[in-house]
Amino acid sequence: MTELELRACDMRIDIVRMIAEAGSGHPGGSLSCTDILTALYFGGVMDHNPEDPKWEGRDRFILAKGHAAPALYAVLAHAGYFPREELSTLRKLGTRLQGHPDCNLCPGVEVSTGSLGQGLSIAAGAAAGLKLAGKPQRVFCLLGDGECEEGQVWEAAMWAAHEGLDNLVAIVDRNHLQIDGDTADVCDPGDMVAKFAAFGWNASTVDGHDIDALVAVLTAAKTAADGKPHVLVANTIKGKGVSFMENQAGWHGKAPNAEQTEQAVAELEAAKKEA
Questions:
Q1: Where is each Transketolase N-terminal domain found (predicted)?
Q2: What CATH code is carried by the domain that includes residue 164?
Q3: Mean pLDDT by 10 residues, the chain (275 residues)
């Protein structure tokens, strides 16, 4: 494993452990997007400063699929926004680490999210604000593929293209599962690359678990100035890294018990040793 892959593996262990400790949470979609967040925060894609979370020169990241907060918390803790030991307080009374990200409590959280469908609108507004202010920073927004069934996503997509927001980069965590099952059965999104392209976006696909590829395409999207917003449809596996969670819709929002936690951590530790 590369250094970034090892870090992603460690963060997956933290995700499993914190959800188990909380007794609730969303492991499936958190594990599927861990490599994407690793590329953004540790692959040199995003400019950010853990010692000054509100640094004016920072790029903005918005987790539209707010239920994947454990993945964001793991990344922020590893980056130094708060102590890693604090991850064990997930969803506990008085914690900064709420079940969905709260920008008033947790350093490094740009926007409070959780009501699906709204994140891309917020990201588009932030990108427009940066453009109006003549600032060079970029806005990154991570959406779920089930979330893209929300109409507001497509209103935001239409407006972002109309405004030429080429400082906006959206990433779709395309794991093909949502709480009710396969996205193709619930409300088939079809060819998401073609759909975004039809809305005027520069759209492409990427292996959402190939961190090097993610860094390359995200960096290219960040530096492009072609008058179009960019979207990367990242093909992922829900529950990635834990055999009994992979591709199982039932693990969308369920905490593992003690035995399952032990097995999950053992599998992730073994993957590190085999690399």
A1: 11-264
A2: 3.40.50.970
A3: 96 98 98 98 98 98 98 98 98 97 98 96 98 98 98 98 98 97 96 98 98 98 96 98 98 98 98 83
